[in-house]
From TrEMBL:
Keyword Oxidoreductase: yes
UniProt keyword annotation of ATP-binding present: no
Record protein name field: NAD(P)-dependent dehydrogenase (Short-subunit alcohol dehydrogenase family)
Location of the Ketoreductase domain: 7-175
Origin species: Nocardiopsis aegyptia
Gene Ontology terms for molecular function: oxidoreductase activity
One GO term describing the cellular component: membrane
Length: 267
């Protein structure tokens, strides 16, 4: 990019994993990049060239302050989020609400604040970083699946609203990724739960799949491709043999696909 065409990007959750990889990739491509963290001063390995802003997606004041500090943003990558698992009947209501505030409502609010500027400049990109679990739901991951499906729903509906103004919207659904997220996942299952044995079986398979998953840089490359496409497609999937499994999803009954997903996780 030349100085005349330099774009500004805001990448949420850029302190590690996919967010850090996306931020680094955009810096290399000449973007001015803001990355967010709940505690910017505590980021262990800051990405060179990235300016970090504080952002708590559960706090309206924090979201407004972050949008104001970033200023004119051309590219928004809604990546920050929480991974959660547990039997549905044992998920505390406050935990589910926190998950949706973080994964959905915060991302939507930040998008609302930045869209007017994109429309006015007749250019913008909004990328929702979802999960292939939104397309292939898995037992004991209901809250997480639902939050990622909600993000995709917002993106798909928003796409037509803003496309006449030069704003492109896409969802990127990664499959299994080796980012260490299993260590940060919040879990809710009682010690005396009737689901405990099956839940642990699912979790072991899930963690094993993620340990063998694609690196964050591969997901970042897909996100950059979505950002720079003219226009971006509604959905990009990467990892977990995405081309094959999405083809199977079109060919076979949904009930069979759900059984296949369960079996892949030992259920």
């Amino acid at each position: 990019m030349t100085d005349q065409t330099t774009r500004t990007a805001l990448v949420t959750g850029a302190s590690s994993g996919i967010g850090a990889a996306v931020a680094a990739a955009l810096v290399r491509r000449g973007y001015r990049v803001y990355g967010t963290s709940r505690a910017p001063e505590a980021v262990a390995e800051p990405v060179p060239g990235v300016e970090y802003l504080a952002l708590d997606l559960t706090d309206e004041t924090s979201i407004v302050a972050c949008a104001k500090a970033a200023g004119a943003v051309d590219v928004l990558v809604n990546n920050a989020g929480e991974s959660q698992s547990g039997p549905l009947e044992e998920l505390p209501p406050e935990a589910v609400e926190r998950l949706f505030r973080t994964n959905v409502f915060g991302a939507v609010r930040l998008t609302q604040l930045l869209l007017p500027g994109m429309r006015a400049r007749r250019y913008g990109r909004v990328v929702m970083v979802g999960s292939m679990l939104a397309s292939f739901p898995l037992a004991y991951r209901s809250s997480y699946v639902a939050s990622k499906a909600a993000m995709k729903g917002f993106a798909d509906a928003l796409r037509r609203e803003v496309s006449p103004y030069g704003v492109g919207v896409a969802t990127v659904e990664p499959g299994s990724i080796n980012t260490g997220i299993s260590e940060r996942r919040t879990e809710y299952v009682r010690t005396d739960s009737p689901f405990a044995a099956e839940y642990r079986t699912m979790l072991a398979a899930l963690n094993a799949n993620q340990d063998k998953g694609i690196p964050a840089d591969t997901v970042a490359a897909t996100i950059v491709r979505a950002i720079e496409a003219r226009p971006p497609r509604p959905l990009y999937a990467v990892g977990s043999n995405a081309p094959v499994v999405f083809a199977l999803r079109r060919l076979f009954p949904r009930s069979l696909i759900l059984r296949m997903v369960a079996r892949r996780h030992g259920l």
